[in-house]
UniProtKB/TrEMBL annotation:
Species the sequence originates in: Croceicoccus marinus
Protein's name in the database: 2'-5' RNA ligase family protein
Length: 170
């Protein structure tokens, strides 16, 4: 039996590298089984995999890499993240959500607040301390999303299920 499918937006190396380094430095090591990532959907049912693959291929063929911006350090309550803003990514996510509306979990039905988690499941005091440490030196960064990805969740590290480079004309 297959677990849920997670859909992410790929991060370019200039964003992934520093974000992953922050995650390795600040995420509780016993819980850190993933690299830095930007989740679009947390749990799509495996029964839609074929249709999801076809949709992702179509989106990749018809959409250019969307512009994005690391905009600020944000609190997750018991964690810390880098906020990501992107109208183009929001549009792509909306297309996917619309196609699979009847299959979305409650978590995936909400309008997303895109972010890259660098710390989670710590005390609120530790989270605030990291936010205070990182905020003074934080510089917003513009980048583009190079691809959409899908992963299988099977209880531990994710297994890549597919990658679709965005190459369309917009």
């Amino acid at each position: 039996m297959s677990g849920p499918i997670i859909v992410t937006a790929a991060l370019p190396p200039a964003v992934f590298g520093p974000a992953d380094a922050l995650r390795r430095a600040h995420f509780p090591p016993e819980r850190n089984v993933l690299s830095a990532h930007l989740t679009l959907f947390h749990a799509l049912p495996p029964s839609i995999e074929g249709e999801l693959r076809a949709l992702m291929a179509d989106l990749a063929a018809h959409h250019a890499p969307p512009a994005a911006r690391l905009s600020r350090i944000v609190s997750l309550g018991r964690g810390t993240a880098l906020a990501v803003e992107s109208e183009g990514l929001t549009e792509l996510r909306h297309i996917i959500a619309d196609r699979f509306a009847g299959c979305l979990t409650a978590q995936d039905q909400h309008r997303p607040r895109f972010h890259i988690t660098i710390q989670n499941k710590v005390s609120p005091q530790d989270a605030r301390a990291l936010q205070a440490q990182l905020s003074p030196d934080f510089q917003p960064k513009d980048f583009t999303i190079p691809a959409l990805e899908a992963h299988y969740y099977r209880g531990g590290p994710w297994e890549q299920a597919g990658r679709w480079p965005l190459r369309g004309g917009g």
